[in-house]
Write the structure tokens for this entry.
Amino acid sequence: MIQRAIRLAGAAVLAATLSVQAQNVAPAGPPAGQGAALLEATYPARLADLIRNAGYEAVLDKTDSGNPVIDSAAEGANFAIYFVECENGADCWAVHFVSAFTLNEPVGLEVLNDWNRDRTIGQASLLEDDAAQIAHYMTLRHGVSEGNFLYMFDQWRIALRDFMVHIGFRR
């Protein structure tokens, strides 16, 4: 249920960047000798494997529009990593980390604005259903090192933990 809510929330935010449905599953990685040292969003299975090898859940799936998505969890919260700027569900250039939280009382805009003013990792927003969302965009165009991606993943994990505290979310 939470994963579905995250996907719906992410879909609303990403509607402008999601492409038409995919015809095929993206390949697991680049051919040998063609940028194998760098990670790209073109190879979602490689990113999912890296996340799993770091000790986190990473379930590779597709959105309703056919783009890859990795469902994961950290700090007691579910989140999704959407692959964006894709062509026909493949050849993606970026990822968008997204998680949303529904509280008994809606989070005020002032609380979210305070977060956005003080943070560079994880943009906060209020969704139509009053869920508080945190999202972070990361370009992988031209590739990044595994170390750079894992560093960003860890920064996302920390931002996710801090965001839950900031909005008063209790697990």
The chain is about 30% helix and 25% strand. The radius of gyration is 16 Å.
